[in-house]
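Data card: per-record layout.
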Amino acid sequence: MIRDNATQAQVDAADPYASTWLSANAGSGKTRVLTDRVARLLFEEVEPQNILCLTYTKAAAAEMQNRLFERLGKWAMMPDAALRVDLTDLGVSGAIDAGRLRNARQLFARAIETPGGLKIQTIHSFCSGVLRRFPLEAEISPQFKEIEDTTARDLRADVVDRMVEGPDEHVVTDLLRHFTGADLTDLTAEISRKRAQFLAPLTDDTLLAALKLPANLKRGDLPSLAINGSEFGLIEEITQCFGGQSKTYVDFAKALQALNIKSPDKAAYSTVSKMFLYANSAQSKSVNFPQRNHKKAVEAAEPFIDDLHRWMDRVAIAKDHEWALDAADKTRALYAFAQIFLPAYEAAKLAMGMLDFDDLIGKTKQLLTDRDVAQWVLFRLDGGIDHLLVDEAQDTSPTQWAVIRQLTQEFTAGDGAKKDADRTIFVVGDRKQSIYSFQGAAPEAFDEMRHHFDEALSNVGRQLMNRSLDYSFRSSFAILRVVDQTFSGPLSFGMETDAGHLAFKEDMPGRVDLWPVEEKVKDDDDRKWFEPVDMRSATDEKVVLAGKIAAQIRHMVDHETLPIEIGRSGAYNHRLITEGDVLILVRGRKTGLFDEIIRACKAADLQIAGADRLRVGAELAVRDLAALLAFVALPEDDLSLAAALRSPLFGWSEQDLFTLAHHRPEKGFLWTSIRETQDGTSTKAILDDLRGKADFMRPYDLIERILTRHDGRRKLLARLGTEAEDGIDALLSQALNYESLGVPSLTGFLAAMETDDLEVKRQMDSQSDRIRVMTVHGAKGLEAPIVFLPDAAKRENKVRDDLLPTGDHIIWKTGSKASAESVTTLSSKIADAQSEENKRLLYVAMTRAEKWLIVAAAGDVGEEIEDSWYNMVADAMTHSGAAQDQSGEIAVQRLSHERWQSGDLETKTTATVSNATPIQLTPLPEWPVSRTLSPSDLGGAKVLSGDLGELDEDDAKMRGTAIHLLLEHLPNMPVADRPKTAAALLATLDAGAIAADVPAVVDGILTAPHLSHLWASPALAEVDFTAQVGAHRFHGSIDRLLITDTHVLAVDYKSNRLVPSTPDQTPEGLLRQMGAYQASLAKIFPDHTIEVAILWTQTAQLMTLANELTSDALNRVTVS
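The structure for this 1120-residue chain is written out next.
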């Protein structure tokens, strides 16, 4: 079969028999290759459980699994001819006979039925599974949970608090002497992430060597290092030569004469430091002393100037050593703290049965390298993994590589648990797209592991195939040309761009636009006095650029078209642009552009999806709900109540709120005024309801009550839009998570909300036809026809890390104005790495575009090419032959490829059916509505005429309640204890004289010989039941229930004064009640004989009622 070069490269990479290291350009179809390789492994009869595919994100794992199941599902239903073609396209070689077709059709079922499913998962998920499989060997709880960030933060704070209150208080105190931040939250989090470096012992020799200090150097050595005693003659010479100079130089000589050269001390060292070094630095003045424009002094100093400059340089070295010793002291304090904090933190997590993401990787690595258990664990795992696939390898951290290295140990060491198995390693990645250093990714590890696998496989006579995917199936030639030109020459360092990019769709029209820079304008602040202080002026360059972007998108939607391929022909028509075609990428959400672009697009009435991530506590809907909850917790909180009233939850106007507040009593509360002036209003009713439930409901239930019962969700969405729903749902999830951590309370939840900076990722659906605004990191793996890069201005390359890695250890960074050269060098390495990653981030951003890439900037773009993304792209555009053009109202630099409006205009059509006969549907049958009925509420008289006698109805009910209460509890009591128990029970009713004779009545019933079988037999008292009888459901309580293997007797106590002489004289209401009991028990005990009886307490008479009598009465019941 003849294939094009791009497809052949994919087929070769998916070869299931070859171990392969694949470098894949953006848009080159690596996900397809991964899916194809797994499909071919399955087709070659590899068991699904023997394949492990590790992806970087859960979304990537889900996408790959969906693609694979979609393909296998299609195979199960394909005709033979079509299936043969698909298998051939996949790369299957040899004759495809009926047996191989049958095998292909069975793969879907095999994959579905695999225990635990196909192992396509993130490395964290895989490590979690390993640890759950070997919890004893890993020394963790088998039921461990993955700790939430908020819980981890609080737990670290608790550990520090316990250290402060315990014998390790001095360690924390020493740390705080060097700490300049607001709190230790970020520092303890960073220590936890870099725990491996801290747990390794750090000797003084190692520390001093890392800081480029002489061995055994002490602070007391600094004065003698700066002043070594050889300076007497030099000082005399300086005094002679500067004697006739200006006062500055005369004073300089006098200060030197006053030094204690024989025994230099701290004061002498301080003096020469001030004289010989520039202020707040360790830079020697030897570069310009005497000052060049002081010609007389320069001539006078000529005889001794070299010796003086060498002295100045010695002082500079001493000062640099002093600052390095500061860093050493700071680092010692950090290590002393970490080596106590980390074990305590690990113990706290272990006690709670929790692990964090770093634990999953770290403990798995430890498990696989522990001499005592590693071989056993690896043997067990080795028997289940024959083929390992690693996706997004450029973002894999060294610790994760260590786990992968251990897993593949047997692959490259000859025989493993399976001696005859063909075992392969497949790694795919793109060094140019390594942008997750903040999560531990290291591009150099990508190259190191390629070398490792290459060497390890060659040692056992096998080969690692180094392949690449150079064709882009995504982007137009115009975009790829600018990308290649951007990262050529000096900018190509570390980018692996030698091969360049090839456009698979050579004829696809495309364009790259470079907008003019939106310059910063110095103008008066035009904001109103009442507007927020952090609100940008209308003339702010970012506001202006955001407005231009919104206006340009509006112009595109109204007037522009987009090329669209006709099937897979390589020919193109065009269609109208929609908002869903646009993806806007920024470098961060706090740059100012992010919010301004969303605001401007909404103002332009464009359909926009909103932010890709949201801070739950900052969402307006969440803040409104939080204000209402805060008032419910504390009614005196006027500010929270005012905020809630002004929110969509209540819809009060400013005037309504002012009127309420203005007319309240002096020092009175708003809630008091509402109670007095808003009686009968919905506002008071809602607040009363919530306050009444606050002490009994969990936070989740209380929020749900606001949203559902009081229509809060609809009100918030009506005012704030559908995107507010994400924040509301995140708040509910936050409440559930809070409740899972302990005994929930409203005040506790509100406190947690205030301290929890929860951020959730919103699902940005590319099919929703709305503009997407997101960070470049968030857009990794996505694409769009039109991509804006508006955040291309110069950005400060600031090193924010305080803990600087050096080998296997950490140096705690000192202040920038007092940092030794060794510390500055470590910071510079990080800055250089950040600069390299910044280029890779630009590469990822540019390669998201399919057909139209637009680059813009607001503010300073710098002078040098590498100063900003804008300058890099501008230089590439110039070298690519870009020309001036017009895009709407904006004059742009444009590079185009092929004719933009080619072919015909395609429009969306709606299929219509003319002269269609309406479908006639028969009416739906009426569905019986089941009501729950109480047997005692079925209508009919309950007493005989004249029964109440001396008692009114309430007193009669109270007396009946007292009799029921004693008959429920006394039968099982010893006879001697009954009087005392009866008195205690009646005291709970406060029945008084009404129940004075009740103990005697009950005692007569319990001692009556003819009723003894009711109390002697095992029986149930006050039995609740529910049963469906016909169209109705009965729910009630039976006073006494006696059950044998064949019979059920239900007894109901009646305290009527007048007792019927025969069953058929029983009041109708009581017969209906007993009929409901009989019918319900017949449903509950279908194999038993059911009897019902009334115990008349007035006469101690048990009256059995015939089934016909009660069922007839039940049939007379009518329910409206």
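Known properties of this structure: Residues 377 and 878 are 58 Å apart (CA to CA). The longest strand covers residues 1032-1043.

See the next section for split statistics.
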